[in-house]
Amino acid sequence: xxxxxxxxxxxxxxxxxxxxxxxxxxxxxxxxxxxxxxxxxxxxxxxxxxxxxxxxxxxxxxxxxxxxxxxxxxxxxxxxxxxxxxxxxxxxxxxxxxxxxxxxxxx
Length: 107
Description:
Blueprint: H1 2-7, H2 12-20, H3 32-37, E1 40-44, E2 57-60, E3 65-67, H4 75-86, E4 90-92, E5 101-105
Antiparallel strand pairs: 1-5, 2-3, 2-4
């Protein structure tokens, strides 16, 4: 909140919305090394809960990944992504920048 007040600049509503959204805890399941060599597939975002992410997804600003390869995708994480996408933030790192699909380890 201190950073928001100090650096929000012209768009305080956007900065406030980003900072007030609750980023879920990371749930690493496998190492990025294992993900790199594993078979992957793209699936609809709505079907990704419970799967292992095979890509990094970040929103800019702030540009910090909200999910990284090897992390379990949870319903809370998908909800957070929906919130950030609704704010028209730039999606970085995802193969599908519309987030209609997500890259996951092949089941």
